[in-house]
Structures are given as C-alpha cells and as structure tokens.
C-alpha cells in the first residue's frame, strides 16, 4: 500500500486539530510569487456570534486584510494555498508543531515536532471579556508600526505598546462603571485622535458593536488612519478632519480626548456633555490658561516663585476645577495616573460618568466657585463653555 504523501499527512494533522478543537494557529509563508506584495497568512480560531470561525490575516508588504470563515470554508481555503500560493506552512497545537515545506523542485516534506512550550490558552471569544484586552497580533498595531509580524513591540515601541494596552484595560473598567457594556452597541468619538493609536484600541475593544469616529485637524493623519482602518477590517471606525470644539459628533455615549492641548480639553469635555455622553475620558495637556490668573496664597508664595512649582500648581488647579465643574453637571469623577511617567509626563486622566449616587450638583457648584475664589480665578474655559459663572 502506498504511503500517504507529505501533503496528505499535513492535511490529516490539520483536520484532526480542527476536529479535536486543539488548533492554536496556522501560519503560511514563503510565497511562490516573489513579485507579489503578499507575504504571509496567519490563521487562528475565533468564536463569533455566528459560532466558531477562523480568522485569516492576509499580510501584504504595506497593508493587512482580515477575513473570517466558517471551519469548512477555512479548510478549503487553506488546502488551496498549500504548495500553490505558499511554499511553507506551520501548524501549532498544544502537543506538536507540524511543518509542511514545498521545495522549488516540487518535492514536499513534512516534519512533526513535539511541542516543548506550555499549552497555549484557549481561542479567545469575541463575545466575552478578553483576558489580554487587545490581541498583540492585531493588524492595525502592525500597520501603525507598533508591533512586528509576531506581535512583539518594534524597537523603541514597547512603552507605546504598554500604554495602548493599559488604556484599553482602563477603558474596559471605566465603561463598566458607567454602565456601558462593551458587548452592546455604542457611539464613540475621539477628539484630537492624532495617529489614532488609542482610537484603534477603542474600536478593537468594542469590535463591530460600536461606531467610532476619530476627529483630527491634520488631513494627512485622517487619510492614513482611514486607510489602516479599512485594511484592518474595522468597518465601523472612521476618521474625519475637524477641530475640537468645532466638529459636530452627533449624539454619543463615550467621548475620549487624550493630550488635547490647554483649553482644547475643555472644548472636548463641553462637546461630550452637549452630545449627551455617559462617559468622558480625557488626559489633559499643557494647562496654560489659568497660570496668569492664579493668586498664590500667602503660605505658598515662597515656593511658587520657582517656575517648575508654578507650572505644576497650575496643572493641579486647572484639573481640580475641571473635576468640580463636571460634578456640578451631575457627573461622578475620578482623577488618576493612567500610565507611569516613563511613557509620558502628561499621564493624568480625568474620567467622568453619569449614574446614580453622583455628588449633589448644587453643592459641587458652590465648591467650584469657592475653589476659584480662593485662587483668584475669574474665568475658566470649561466653565464658560458650560454656561457656569464662577463669580456670580
């Protein structure tokens, strides 16, 4: 009886891994057409609302394309690629690694190797909270230059990668506090989205259940981010050109504004309130507005003659007053450091959400006015935007 071919042995191992539910991932490499922009295909099992599927990430030289297929279609797709489009394939299960190689002369070889590493975690579900929040092999992370093909941070990008993961983790918890279920639909706006790292992280967190809009004043970044979103299969993520405070977002549930400079943070907060947002998440930057107004209390005057203390004092007063003004509008507030200073010196985050048990709005307004009077503050951009008189 003739022995099964190398291809047959590989396909048998693949089908057995699928049948037994032990497939961790499959990679296809060494494209036969050296002129093609296609470099690799990465396949892994996922669980969608429609049931078990396989996620294919087609990695080209300058972009990625993600497609999901039911198991039967996925097997047919893979078998058509073996030895034809790609000369190399690796199958990974908790117990073994199987390599299938097609040489230039047409001869094929298969190699079975016992796995030495601990079993990989079970396939992640798209319908439950993710254990790592974001998948490090997400196409958009690679397209934005954060990770490489193996999902590892590129040189110099490890702090940024940790910041993105930390933000997604925090946002997940803040959304839960605000009663925003990441398993349900949501309308989200990111004001001053920049290159979109955290906008993409937010869209990834909600997957296809949220409509996410990034607002950015630089057209070249808007164009870049829209291209990456389309190529990464994030169909409900889009970016548009506009300035914070001048762009109508329509009704939203969540507003994000990270490192919007000086009073642009106030414009973003006001836009979120006007749009009815249940959750506001901002990381202020360059708090310059109040510094000329501040009257140093007599006890602090000797210390505040130093410029660095003046700067930090102005930051404290500005953000403390922002929190009080948000409470005066019926929001809960939380102020905290969201990353360490190794990532950015501007690491303070203000979160505010609507919900039962919020501070008494009239009491918070009185506190805001008393706080402003103590420091001699006559005007504050957020107070003006919210129609609040600090000195009635």
Explain how this protein is built.
This protein is α/β, with parallel strands linked by helices. It has helices spanning 6-20, 71-81, 139-143, 158-177, 197-206, 219-231, 264-274, 307-328, 361-374, 381-385, and strands at residues 25-31, 38-48, 51-60, 64-70, 86-92, 96-102, 108-114, 186-191, 210-216, 237-241, 254-261, 279-285, 331-337, 348-354. The strands form two sheets. It has a seven-stranded antiparallel β-sheet, sandwiched between helices. The protein has a seven-stranded mixed β-sheet with strand order 10-9-8-11-12-14-13, sandwiched between helices. Helix 5 links the parallel strand 8 and strand 9. Helix 4 packs across helix 5 and helix 8 runs antiparallel to helix 9. The longest helix has 22 residues, at 307-328. It is elongated and about 95 Å long. Residues 116-131 and 340-345 have low confidence and may be disordered.
């Amino acid at each position: 009886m003739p022995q099964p071919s190398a291809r047959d042995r590989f396909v048998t191992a693949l089908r057995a891994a699928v049948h037994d539910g032990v497939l961790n991932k499959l990679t296809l490499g060494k494209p036969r057409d050296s002129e093609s922009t296609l470099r690799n295909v990465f396949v892994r099992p996922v669980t969608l609302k429609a049931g078990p599927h396989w996620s294919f990430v087609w990695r080209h030289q300058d972009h990625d394309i993600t497609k999901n297929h039911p198991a039967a279609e996925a097997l047919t797709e893979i078998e058509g690629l073996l030895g034809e489009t790609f000369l190399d394939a690796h199958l990974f299960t908790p117990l073994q690694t199987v390599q299938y190689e097609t040489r230039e002369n047409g001869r094929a070889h298969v190699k079975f190797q016992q796995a030495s590493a601990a079993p990989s975690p079970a396939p992640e579900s798209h319908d439950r909270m993710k254990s790592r929040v974001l998948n490090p092999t997400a196409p958009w992370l690679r397209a934005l230059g954060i990770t490489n093909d193996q999902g590892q941070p590129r040189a110099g990008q490890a702090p940024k990668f940790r910041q993105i993961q930390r933000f997604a983790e925090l946002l997940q918890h803040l959304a839960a506090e605000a009663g925003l279920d990441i398993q349900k639909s949501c309308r989200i706006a990111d004001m001053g989205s920049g290159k979109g790292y955290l906008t993409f992280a937010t869209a990834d967190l909600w997957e296809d259940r949220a409509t996410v809009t990034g607002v950015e004043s630089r057209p070249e970044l808007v164009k870049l981010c829209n291209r990456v979103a389309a190529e990464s299969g994030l169909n409900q993520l889009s970016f548009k050109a506009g300035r914070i405070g001048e762009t109508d977002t329509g009704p939203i549930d969540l507003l994000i504004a990270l490192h919007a400079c000086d009073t642009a943070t106030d414009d973003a907060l006001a836009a979120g309130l006007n749009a009815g947002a249940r959750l506001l998440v901002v990381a202020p930057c360059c708090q310059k507005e109040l510094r000329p107004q501040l009257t140093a209390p007599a006890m602090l005057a000797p210390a505040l003659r130093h410029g660095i203390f003046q700067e930090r004092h102005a930051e404290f007063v500005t953000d403390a007053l922002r929190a009080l003004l948000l409470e005066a509008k019926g929001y809960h507030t939380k102020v905290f450091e969201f990353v360490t200073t190794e990532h950015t010196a501007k690491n303070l985050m203000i979160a505010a959400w609507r919900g039962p048990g919020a501070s008494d709005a009239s009491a918070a307004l009185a506190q805001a006015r008393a706080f402003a009077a103590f420091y001699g503050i006559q005007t504050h951009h957020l107070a003006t935007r919210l129609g609040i008189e600090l000195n009635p």
